[in-house]
From TrEMBL:
Residues annotated as domain Outer membrane lipoprotein BamD-like: 36-220
Name of the protein described by the UniProt record: Outer membrane lipoprotein BamD-like domain-containing protein
Pfam families: YfiO
Keyword Signal belongs to the record: yes
């Protein structure tokens, strides 16, 4: 039964390819356009795209060209040819800036970058481009019904960028590169000032600088423990209601005890 089904599918595929080949060889452009429309409606985007591509230079300047361009761009999108889709959405707006579909095409260009946004641990160039293009779209079309969705996408992208930076900072910390970790967590706070995890990042700054001080040569420990105390005070100013206050107070106490011990040792050596 299964072999019969496979044979039937292959037979239908051969017939379909044969029929499409005849359409491609036709010199009747109106017929080709009608068939392209038929394939598009049937969601046979590969066939439709090939016919639209052939008709693209021929129909340029004709009344049908705008609709052809529009559907040709969407064929690339549905086929996941992101580079081609982004290029066609962009070109559509350039060729038809006053079209009723221009706003939609602008949005889709930004959305194509969003579709290419990878996992947080990978390069986030497309994520950053998504944010930039979505913000431009909102600024250019303040009353668009797409703006709510655009804002939600931007929020998702920012979360991903934040996760990317968190991963980098944590890697420095786990590798024992504590000064680099402290700088990375500080940068994270500056890049995402509205993050719900701001106090956690600041806590990591304190822990990193403390471990950096602990692992420093003796002559540099005093200044580095002073820095930990400064970071603790900054934490209290920024996050007075944080549940991490006791941990911060503990690191401040430890750092001050180390500073006191170092000063006492220096006094002993002087005497």
């Amino acid at each position: 039964m299964r072999s019969v089904l496979i044979i039937a599918i292959i037979a239908l595929s051969v017939v379909s390819c044969s029929k499409f080949s005849k359409v491609q060889k036709s010199t009747d452009y109106d017929y080709k356009l009608r068939m392209a429309e038929k394939y598009y409606v049937a969601k046979k985007y590969n066939y439709a795209s090939q016919l639209y591509e052939e008709l693209f230079p021929i129909m340029k300047g004709q009344p049908q060209f705008e609709d052809l361009f529009y559907k040709y761009a969407y064929c690339s999108y549905y086929l996941h040819d992101w580079l081609q889709a982004e290029n066609l959405f962009k070109q559509f707006v350039e060729v038809f800036p006053n079209s009723a579909k221009a706003e939609e095409m602008e949005y889709m260009r930004a959305y194509v970058y969003y579709k290419q946004s990878p996992k947080a641990e990978l390069d986030q160039t497309n994520t950053e481009k998504t944010i930039g293009l979505m913000q431009t779209f909102i600024n250019t079309h303040p009353n668009s019904p797409k703006n709510k969705e655009a804002s939600e996408i931007m929020d998702k992208c920012r979360i991903k960028l934040e996760e990317k930076e968190v991963g980098s900072a944590l890697l420095y910390y786990n590798m024992g590169h504590y000064r680099a970790a402290a700088i990375a967590y500080t940068s994270l706070m500056n890049d995402f000032p509205d993050s719900q995890k701001g106090d956690e990042y600041k806590m990591q700054v304190i822990k990193s600088y403390y471990l950096f001080a602990m692992n420093s040569v003796e002559e540099k420990k005093l200044a580095r423990f002073d820095q930990v105390v400064t970071e603790c005070h900054d934490f209290m100013d920024r996050f007075p209601e944080s549940s991490l206050k006791k941990d911060v107070e503990n690191y401040e106490t430890l750092s001050k005890n180390n500073i006191k011990a170092i000063n006492n040792e220096q006094i002993t050596k002087t005497n």
